[in-house]
Amino acid sequence: MIEYEELRADIDRYLMERFKYRKSLVCLTVDNIIATRRNSRVDLYLRIRRIESRFPPDCLIIARLGFIKERIGHGTHFLRFLTEVARKYGFNYIGIECANIKSSAFAKKLGFYSIDGENYAIAITNLISYFQWNNLS
Q1: Are 59 and 92 in contact (CB under 8 A)?
Q2: Rounded to whole angstroms, how far apart are CA atoms 37 and 29?
Q3: Sheet (strand 26-28) strand order
């Protein structure tokens, strides 16, 4: 779908600018998964779901997100960016799939609700409020 390719391109541009990559880093699979190619600094696996599943409909689901340098704001910065992109493409939720201890603490800090103890979701409007309230750039 062309819309998903545009979404992929937006994420690719963001990662290239943020992490100073010169070549494309992100691909879109046939089953609507955005993933980074093997590299040393960023690991991203993002599911695009329009239909309801364990997660609410119109949800961008982070299945894997990692940065070589942790706890310096990359995750929060990416979530702020992803919130803007989600709005642009008509997504209403962001989810975190199979959260470990670190990512569940991160999700709770940002106001995500637990779906079943290991999966989390949040409405885009709530994330926007969080970022405005905390004035995070």
Answers
A1: yes
A2: 12
A3: 26-28, 33-36, 42-49, 59-67, 93-96, 120-123, 113-114
Query: Tokens 């994330």 identify what position?
Result: 127
Q: Do 21 and 56 contact (CB within 8 A), yes or no?
A: no
Q: Is 98 left (phi over 0), alpha (psi -120 to 50) or beta?
A: left
- Give per-residue pLDDT as tens, 39-81: 778 999 999 999 999 999 999 999 999 888 777 889 999 999 9
The number of C-alpha atoms within 13 Å of 97 and in the hemisphere containing its C-beta is 17
Q: Beta strands of the chain (E only): which ranges?
A: 26-28, 33-36, 42-49, 59-67, 93-96, 113-114, 120-123
pTM of the model: 0.91
DSSP summary character for residue 37? P
Q: What is the pLDDT of residues 86-122, one digit of tens each?
A: 999 999 999 999 999 999 999 999 999 999 999 999 9
Going from N- to C-terminal start, the domains of the chain cover 2-134
- The CATH class given to the 2-134 domain equals alpha beta
Task: Output the furthest CA–CA distance in the chain (Å, rounded).
Answer: 40
Strand partners, 62: 46, 96
